[in-house]
Amino acid sequence: DTLVLSYTYQPIKLINWFDAFNMVLSGRAELVAAYDDKEVCSFTETYKMPSIVRFIGGVINKFTSGTGYVKFNRKNVWARDKGLCQYCGKNISIKDSTLDHVIPKSKGGKKVWENVVLCCFTCNQKKDDMTLQQASMKLLNKPVKPKNIEIARILTSNKSAMKNWGSFLSHYIK
């Protein structure tokens, strides 16, 4: 992943390295920092993989016109919930995790950020197709729709990324 900064060096969002690389090559952004241990190779050149890029001028308006929220998927739910089962607090890997609908689909619950939590297999089986009250279970944290910068805060556990991103995200990381 690559951290994107506004032209005033404010963190905006994370994008994949390929898009960041193309932004730099096209002149829409400048390279602020690169990964020491990752390279991009073409037939004739070798480049450092971008870790941080910064928009040049007014390009930012077009780029940030979206919602500013993170795509709903298992990896991002796992990041939001910090890899913890939201019922028992057990630390679980992405591979061993399940997603649970707080309000079951059969009772009108939707597949949205505010109704889905990370859950271990045992707790998912225990809760089954019941509400929290019916299963006598409680949530550790209320599920919310995260912003890109919140996911960035969690993903900075990547030592290689944090080496470069730390100074730009230190205000957001607590």
Please give a structural write-up.
There is one protein chain. This protein is α+β, with helices and mostly antiparallel strands. It starts with a strand and ends in a 5-residue tail after the last helix. It is elongated. 30% of the residues lie in helices and 23% in strands.
- Overall outline: elongated
Sheet having the most strands: 4 strands, mixed
Number of DSSP-assigned strands: 6
Q: Spans with pLDDT under 50 lasting ≥5 residues?
A: 60-67
Please state roughly what percent of the residues sit in beta strands, choosing from under 5%, 5-15%, 15-25%, 25-35%, 35-45% or over 45%.
15-25%
User: What do the pLDDT scores average to?
Assistant: 82
Rg from alpha-carbon coordinates = 19 Å
Strand order of the largest sheet: 2-1-4-3
Helix content: 25-40%
Number of helices: 7
**Structural class computed from helices and strand pairing:** alpha+beta
Order of helices and strands: EEHEEHHEEHHHH
Termini Cα gap: 21 Å
Main traits of this protein?
174 residues; alpha+beta; 4-stranded mixed beta sheet; two-stranded antiparallel ribbon; 7 helices; 23% strand; elongated
List the helices and strands and how they pair.
Blueprint: E1 2-5, E2 11-15, H1 17-26, E3 29-41, E4 46-55, H2 59-63, H3 74-80, E5 98-101, E6 116-119, H4 121-127, H5 132-135, H6 148-155, H7 159-169
Parallel strand pairs: 1-4
Antiparallel strand pairs: 1-2, 3-4, 5-6
